[in-house]
Amino acid sequence: MSTCSVSKGCFVFKPSPKKRRVSQKTAIYFRDGKNGSEDSELRFDTCQSLWNQIKLETEVESLESELLLITASSVRSDQQIQEDLNKQLLDNVVSFLRRSHSEFQGKTTEWTYRMKSREIPTAALVLGVNVTDHDLTFRNLSEALQNNITPYIALLEAKDCSGIKNLMQKLMGQLMNCSTDVASLEDEDYVQVSQNRIRCSMKSLVDWYESVTKKTDSETLSKKRTSSSKHQQSPPVVVIFKDMESFTTKVLQDFIVISSQHICELPLVLIFGIATSPMIIHSLLPHSVSSLLCIELFQSLSCKEHLSTVIDKLLLTSRFPFKLGEKVLQVLINIFLYHDFSVWNFIRGFQLCIVEHFYSQPLSVLCCQLADAKERVNSLSHDQCENVRRLPSFRRYVERQEAEKQIALLTADSFLKETTQKLLEDLHVYHENYVSVLRCLHVFTCSLPKYPLGKQIRELHCACLENRVWETEDYESSLQLARMLNKSDLETILQQCVEILVSSAGNEFDKAVEKLKEFLTQFQKLEVAEAFQEQDVSVSSQKELQKKTDLYHLQKTLLELKDSRRSKKLTKFEMLRFEVVDYIDSLVRNYLVPADHKTLHEVVYFNTASVLRGHLNAAPRIALHTALNNPYNYLKNQALKSDGGSISNKAPDICIVYKLHLECGRLINLVDWLEAFSTVVTAVEEPNADTASSDQVDDIIHARFIRAVSELELLGFIKPSKQKTDHVARLTWGGC
Q1: What tens digit of pLDDT does each residue of 553-582 get?
Q2: Which of 69, 361, 473, 612 is the most buried (most CB within 10 A)?
Q3: Distance (Å, rounded) from C-alpha 730 to C-alpha 35?
Q4: pTM for this one?
Q5: Which residues of 97-118 are buried (b: 16+ CB within 10 A; e: fewer)?
Q6: Which pLDDT tens digit goes with each residue over 81-130?
Q7: How far apart are CA 366 and CA 37, in angstroms?
Q8: Residue 639: enclosing H or E segment and its boundaries?
Q9: Cβ distance 107 to 87 under 8 Å?
C-alpha cells in the first residue's frame, strides 16, 4: 500500500481479520480482583465451563462478551432454543420465497399477471418491539435462505440508506460480495474498486444479475448435471429492510417504484422487518406505491414466550448448579418488561451474574456438578474452610447443633468437609424436588380466576424464593379457589401433576405419584354413584312439591329445603376435592421452602442485586454528580481526598467549578465565580511569589476557568442567561 500524497494526511491501515491480538488470560483478572485466592484459576475454569454448557441451551450465537473475555476458546452456540422457537417462522418465509421463485421459473399465468401489474412479492415480518433481538433473527433467516433458496441476499439498515443513491450502493455492494469468493480475495479494496467503477442503478443491477445467472447456467451445463446444486436456476434476489419504520418515505417509494419497472427482468423479493404493526406499511407508503407490492404477513413468536422458555431452560432445572436469588431475578425481569423486551439482554444480564458470582464469591469453586463438588471439598485448604464457617447460613446451621458437634464443626477441618459434602448433596436434592413441586403448583394456580399467584411460572418462582409462599394471602385465596374446581378440571390437573412427578429427576415422589393416581381412581368411581344419587334426590324433591298444593305448606317446604341445603353435609366429591387440595398443600410446605433457608445456599445463589442494578440500570446524573463532587471515588488519588464540603486545589478544574456552583443560587455571577475559583487554585501559593509573573498566572487561571465553565455547560448544568450578560443560569437542583 502506498502512502504517497501531495498534502499531509493521516493514513489508516485496517488490520486483517485473521490477525487478532491474543487477549490477556482472564484468570489474571480473577486473581488480581477482590477475594483473590489460590483457587482463582479453578474458579475461572468453572465459570467458563458453566457458561459453555448454558450457551448450548440458549439462543445466543457468538456471545463474545468483553466483560468475561472467555469466548476466544469457547465453543460456538448451536442456537437450540432460537431455532426451535423461530423454526415455524423461518419455514413459512422459506416456503413463501420458494413459491415466488417457482412461479418466476415456470412463467405461469399468475406470475405473468404479477409482472404485468408490476407487483413485487413482499414478506412483512412482525418481530415485536424487542429490536435488539432482531439481528439474531435476521441472521438465522439469511442463513436459512442461503442454504435453501438463493445466495443473493442483502440486508439494509436505515442508517446506511439516507438516499436512494446510498441504498443502491449498499445493495449492489452486498450482492456483489455474495457472488464473489471472499476467501480468494487478499484485500477488501477489490470490492470497493469494483463497486465504484460500476454505476449504481437498477439497470446495472439487472445486467449484473443476467451475467451472473448466465455464468451459473453455463457452468451447470458444462458439468452435465453430474452434481445437483442447492440453488436452482435464476434464484431470486432477496432485499431485507431490517428496520422498516426507520427508513424515510421517499427512499422506500423511489426504490419500490423503480424496482417494479424491472420486475420482469429481475426476480426481486422484499422482506420488511416490522417492530410495531403491519399498518406502518400503509402509513409510510401511499396507495399508488403499496399497490405495487404483493404482501404476505408473518408473525414471530412473542418475546414473553421466548423469555419463559429461556427461564425454564436455565433456572427451572437441576442441570445447572448456578441459581439466581429472588431480587436479582426480579431486576432482570423488570428490565425485560419495562425497558426493552429483549431476551438477548436478559441472557447478557444472566451472564453478568455468573461472572460477578464467580469473581466475588471465593466458595463459588463449589458451584459445579455434585460429583465434582464433593471432590473439590476434599481438597479445600484451611483458609477456604474458614470461608465456609463465615457463611451466615452455615452459622445458623451450627447454632442448631449440639455442643460437641458445634466444636467439631468450628475446629476440625476433616469433620467440616464431611458435613459440607452432605449439605451440598441435600442442596442438590432440594433443587430437584423444588422444580417438580413448583410445576405442580403452577398447574393448579395458572387457571384460577384473577391468577392470585401469577399467570407465568416465573412469578410463582419469585414468590417462592421471596418467603414461605404458604403464609401469604394470595396462596390462601388460591387454595379457596382450588377447592371450588369441578371434577373434570381436577382430573386434568391431577393427570398433569402425575406426568410431572414421573418425569422429575427427584427420587422421593414415588408415594406422591401413587397417591395422585389413587385420587384419580376415586374420582372415576364417584362419577357413576353421584349420577344415581342426584337423580333419586331430584325425583323425591319433585314428588314432595307435587303433594303440597297449599300455599302455607309449600312455603314451609321450601324453607325446610333451604335450611337443609345450608346445613347439609359435604358430598363425597367435595370431601375428596378437599383431600386433593390439602395433599398438594402438604407437598408445597415440604418442598417449596425458600432457598435462603437452606444451608450453603450462598455457594450457588447470586443475591447481590445492588451490583447488578448498578451495572445494568445506569444513572448518568448520579454518576456525574459523584465524579464532580468527589473525584477520588473514581480516580483513587490520595491527594484528592477532602473532608466534608472542603474544596481541594488538587482537584480537576471542572470539579472545583462544580462545587462552587453548588453554593450559588439561580443566577451565578461569572466575576464572583472566577474570583472564588482563583482563590481556591492559588490557596497554597507562597506569599512572596514573583509579582512580575502574576499577570501571566491570572491569564492562565482565567483560561482554565473558561474551559471548566464551558465543560460544565456542555454537561448541561448551566446555560447563558438573557437577563444579565455577565451571569449564567443554574439548571440542576437538589441532591442529584
Answers
A1: 767 777 777 666 666 677 788 888 899 999
A2: 612
A3: 44
A4: 0.74
A5: bbebbebbeeeeeebeebeeeb
A6: 555 666 777 888 888 888 876 655 555 455 554 444 568 889 999 888 77
A7: 14
A8: none
A9: no
